Amino acid sequence: MSREITRSIGYARVSTAGQDLSRQIRALKAERCTAIFSDQASGRSLEGRPELATAIARLAPGDTLLLAEWDRATRSMWDGLQIVKQVLDAGATIRVLDFPSLDLTTPEGRGFLALFSAMAERERMRIVKRTQEGRRLAVEAGRRMGRKPKLTPHQQRSARSRLAKGESTRDIAKDFAVHHATIARLR
Predict the structure, then answer these.
(1) Which position among 2, 8, 15, 45 bears the catalytic label?
(2) How many domains does the chain have?
(3) Is residue 164 assigned to a domain?
C-alpha cells in the first residue's frame, strides 16, 4: 500500500515595504515547505493578496497551508473564515506555527481560529484608531503631514509669480527640475 505524499505550502505577509519577511520565511523554511508565497499588502482584506490566492489554489487534498502567524494571513474574522473554508474545500488543512496545539481539522479548532481572527480584527481597529489619533494630535500641534514639499517656500513664491505673469507650467517646472503638475498645483 503506497502512502500519499502531502505537501506544506507556506504563506507570509507584511503590510509595508519597510517591514521584513525574513523571520516568517525562516520559520516556514524550517518546516520544509514545498513552496512559499508572500505578499506585501494590508491584512484588512483578502483583496490585493494574489500570492495568498495562489497558495490556496495550489493546495491538493491532504496538503497543508502553513502560516508562521495567523494574523499574517488576515486581520478580519470573516476573511479568516473564508480562508479556512477555501482550504478545507480543497481537501487540505491549515497549520499555524504560533498556535501549534490548534487542531484545525475539528469544529472546535476552526472555532478558535474564528476567535483569533476576531481578536486580530480588533487589534487592527485599535492600530487604526491610535494612528488617527496620532495624526490628529500632530496636525493640532502644527506639524505638516505627508511628503516633504519639492519646492522651498521661496521657490513656490517665485513659481507663483511666474505663473501670474503667464509663463507655462512646463517651462517653470524645467527650471526647478520638477514635474509640471507640481507647478500646476501651486495655482
Answers:
(1) 15
(2) 2
(3) yes
